[in-house]
Design goal:
single chain; 7-stranded parallel β-sheet; 41% helix
């Protein structure tokens, strides 16, 4: 196992690292040598309501270790306060510090895309419990985790908090198609701004980050029914998918932020993988630098963007 990465002395918690962007963030931090606690509700013994049993936190921890870091899986429901408290107490006991907190919890796509019909109904037509569940998964879980983790992170200067969402502040200023989803995806942007204000006098930084059009596991195998190898077949179903990116891309964005000694320059801001690639120079797995949100916004503005100009 390598201990030579630029984050070899750093301790990270990636909350909600079962799959997708957050798993990739955990692995990218590990690739730079970090010790990464990875949490989530799906383990090899138990499956969350998302219902994807092959994606587990144990596997994420193994990927972190294989990448060069130390991966530690801790089953945690981030809506259960005592579980989160125990998680942070364990990190404190074992490490005595926390340098990076990634609030990547979500798990609401089964409501948004699935049988709940969120994307076709008005707010008052949605089952109230289902709507509130989406907000608990995407907002309350982040707040609970920060409440318990930030005293440890803020114990020393240099700590970094990363709120994960879908959409930049500029894009999310528009209506995102459904009341509960809109709130769930704008809230992390504001949380990063607020936490940035509260952490800056302690020498710590908070940001919000979004991938572009993410080729997550579920987007590939469930929504579009393609693979990473033939993902371009899905462009026939959604033309915006031409500018999609692998989870690795946003993972590298978070690793770049964590390794940046001047990360405070981003404090309180809404950031995207494509934007940060231009600053830090990392690429996606295919060597390109897709800027998904800029492409989508220009397309929706009628500018007829060409994919090659946004990679």
């Amino acid at each position: 196992m390598s201990t030579q990465g630029v984050l070899a002395d750093k301790i990270a918690l990636v909350a909600g690292a079962t799959r997708g962007a957050s798993r990739a963030m955990a692995v990218a931090l590990g690739a730079e040598g970090a010790t990464v606690y990875v949490t989530g509700r799906t383990t090899r013994d138990r499956v969350s309501e998302v219902g994807r049993p092959t994606e587990t936190i144990e596997e994420t921890a193994e990927l972190v270790t294989a990448a060069g870091g130390v991966g530690i899986a801790v089953p945690t429901d981030h809506l259960e306060r005592e579980q989160v408290r125990a998680l942070v107490e364990r990190i404190d006991s074992e490490q005595g510090r926390l340098d990076v907190l990634v609030n990547g919890m979500w798990g609401g796509d089964y409501l948004w895309i699935g049988a709940g019909g969120f994307h076709t109904k008005k707010m008052w037509e949605i089952d109230l419990d289902a709507g509130l569940r989406m907000l608990r998964l995407g907002v309350e879980s982040h707040i609970i985790t920060s409440h318990y983790a930030l005293p440890l992170l803020a114990r020393r200067p240099g700590g970094l908090v990363v709120e994960v969402t879908d959409g930049t502040a500029e894009y999310n200023a528009k209506y995102r198609g459904q009341f509960h989803f809109d709130l769930a995806k704008y809230a992390p942007i504001r949380m990063a701004f607020d936490l940035g204000e509260e952490l800056k006098d302690l020498g710590c930084t908070a940001v919000c980050i979004t991938p572009g059009y993410l080729r997550s596991e579920a987007m590939l195998d469930t929504h579009f029914k393609v693979t990473e190898e033939n993902w371009r077949e899905a462009v026939k179903q959604d033309r915006h998918f031409c500018i999609s990116e692998s989870p690795v891309y946003v993972g590298r964005a978070v690793a770049a932020l964590a390794a940046d000694p001047d990360v405070a320059r981003w404090n309180g801001q809404s950031l995207s993988s494509g934007q940060l690639a231009q600053v830090y120079g990392f690429t996606d797995v295919d060597g390109t630098q897709p800027d998904g949100w800029r492409f989508i916004m220009d397309d929706e503005a009628g500018k007829e963007p060409q994919e090659a100009d946004y990679r």
